[in-house]
Design brief:
This protein is α+β, with helices and mostly antiparallel strands. The protein is built from four helices and four strands.
Length: 162
């Protein structure tokens, strides 16, 4: 049997490299999994929060929906003004999925069928690009500043909008 001169000396080196590379690769792979949640798990957490929030909104349970609002994390936000908002009756709400998720901000697509009883407008439909912000590891529904109810909603740059 004829051997190449490099083959005899490369086997111990190859074994040493394999012995060092495999544990290093496992540490890097498992370490990455432990430090950040899997994108799918984060999406599922967001979708669950969105379903819970919109179920409460559909039931017109504003007191229980309030803790899902990013505004609830802002000491300057006004629960009373939030509860007074209204005029919309939601007949059906379907969470269709996460459109985008990046750096603590997400957009969830929500299909809505609703009525505006005061305006006598029944059976309206809309697809909403619903904004959510990640605050202290939890997803919160985010509503941009409202001209109609400015005291109920946080301003950009406040604590929760970071």
């Amino acid at each position: 049997m004829k051997t190449h001169p490099m083959t005899a000396t490369s086997h111990p080196r190859r074994r040493l490299l394999q012995a060092l590379a495999l544990p290093a690769a496992l540490v890097l792979t498992l370490g990455g999994c432990a430090s950040t949640p899997a994108p799918q798990a984060e999406r599922e957490a967001l979708l669950q929060r969105a379903r819970e929030y919109w179920a409460l909104v559909q039931q017109n349970d504003k007191l229980r929906a309030w803790p899902y609002e990013a505004a609830s994390k802002d000491p300057k936000a006004n629960l009373e003004a939030y509860v007074k908002r209204g005029g919309v009756t939601f007949d059906a709400i379907e969470i269709q999925g996460v459109q985008s998720m990046d750096q603590g901000k997400a957009v969830v697509t929500v299909q809505q069928r609703y009525s505006l009883p005061l305006l006598r407008l029944p059976n309206q439909q809309a697809t909403l690009q619903d904004q959510w912000h990640l605050i202290d590891g939890q997803w919160y529904h985010y509503q941009p500043l409202s001209v109609a109810f400015p005291e109920a909603l946080p301003r950009e740059g406040s604590q929760q909008a970071q």
